[in-house]
Amino acid sequence: MKLYHFPLSPNSRRVVAVLHHLRLDCELEAVDLSKGEQMQPDFLKLNPNHMIPTLVDGDFVLWESNAIMQYLCSKAPYTSLYSTDARVQADINRWQFWQAAHFGSACSVMIFEKVVKKFFMQAEADLQEVAKGEERFHRFAQVLEQHLKGRDWLVGNDVTLADFSVGSFLALAELAEYPMAPYSEIPRWYGNIEQLPAWISSAPPAG
Ligand SMILES: N[C@@H](CCC(=O)N[C@@H](CS)C(=O)NCC(=O)O)C(=O)O
């Protein structure tokens, strides 16, 4: 298998974390988004959305990080990351869809305005966009905060794909200046993810 990724992207880090957690053999190839490498014709043949992560497994090409994570679990003999129990699996799916549709898209506004523009475009953040992102962030962070009360993980008693999917956006909380002040459960839970060997080993190189 080969995974096209960009180390700074939360969308690809969570896939790399799952690869490490499951100890799966997979070649990693970095696609440098800051140089526009995702627009190369050969890459566009794999993913016409020009996005990482993208997985190639023989003649099978898969894009969308959450779909890739679920597929990788089918490569492991059994993993509690993605239980085979229908309700537990539905619960994990729920949080993965929620990340893709709501929480992640709120975080992405701040990542774009405060990180991508500053480091890759040498441009200023649009404060109106930041305000809209923050409002959206609070709407969904409140849901996450309430759910995490009395829990160490999003679903059940162990780490699942749900934690990697939602948690991946917290890695950029400081850099992207998410408005984290009202929340205590979210950083407590993210602290559990930060201690996972697979999360540590999937971190982008410093500097
Ligand atoms: N929904 C997609 C989002 C992937 C995504 O947004 N990738 C960004 C990097 S974080 C990308 O490749 N952007 C390059 C571009 O849009 O040209 C997933 O979960 O895989």
Short description:
Residues 1-80 form the GST N-terminal domain. It comes from Methyloglobulus morosus KoM1. This protein has 207 residues and is α+β, with helices and mostly antiparallel strands.
Can you describe this structure?
With 207 residues, the chain is of the alpha+beta class. The chain has two domains: 2-77, Glutaredoxin; 83-200, Up-down Bundle (Glutathione S-transferase Yfyf (Class Pi), Chain A, domain 2). The chain has helices spanning 10-21, 41-46, 65-73, 86-120, 127-148, 161-167, 185-194, 197-201, and strands at 2-5, 27-30, 54-57, 60-63. The chain has a four-stranded mixed beta sheet, covered by helices on one side. A hairpin with a 2-residue loop joins strand 3 and strand 4. The mean pLDDT is 96. The structure holds glutathione.
List the helices and strands and how they pair.
Elements: E1 2-5, H1 10-21, E2 27-30, H2 41-46, E3 54-57, E4 60-63, H3 65-73, H4 86-120, H5 127-148, H6 161-167, H7 185-194, H8 197-201
Helix pairs in contact: 1-3, 1-6, 4-5, 4-6
The structure holds glutathione.
Keyword list:
single chain; about 210 residues; alpha+beta; Glutaredoxin; Glutathione S-transferase Yfyf (Class Pi), Chain A, domain 2; 2 domains; four-stranded mixed sheet; 8 helices; about 50% helix; globular; binds glutathione
- The N- and C-terminal alpha carbons lie at a distance of 28 Å
- Main sheet? 4 strands, mixed
Bound molecules: glutathione
- What CATH calls the topology of the largest domain is Glutathione S-transferase Yfyf (Class Pi), Chain A, domain 2
Strand order in the sheet with the most strands: 2-1-3-4
Low-confidence stretches: none
Number of helices: 8
In the CATH hierarchy, the architecture of the largest domain is: Up-down Bundle
Q: In percent terms, what proportion of residues is strand?
A: 5-15%
CATH class of the largest domain: Mainly Alpha
Anisotropy-based shape: globular
> Which percent range fits the helix content?
40-55%
User: What is the number of independent domains?
Assistant: 2
What sequence of helices (H) and strands (E) makes up the elements?
Answer: EHEHEEHHHHHH
Mean of all residue-level pLDDT scores: 96
Report the count of strand segments.
4
Using the CA coordinates, give the radius of gyration: 17 Å
Structural class: alpha+beta
Domain GST N-terminal: 1-80
GO molecular function: glutathione transferase activity
Keywords: Transferase
Organism: Methyloglobulus morosus KoM1
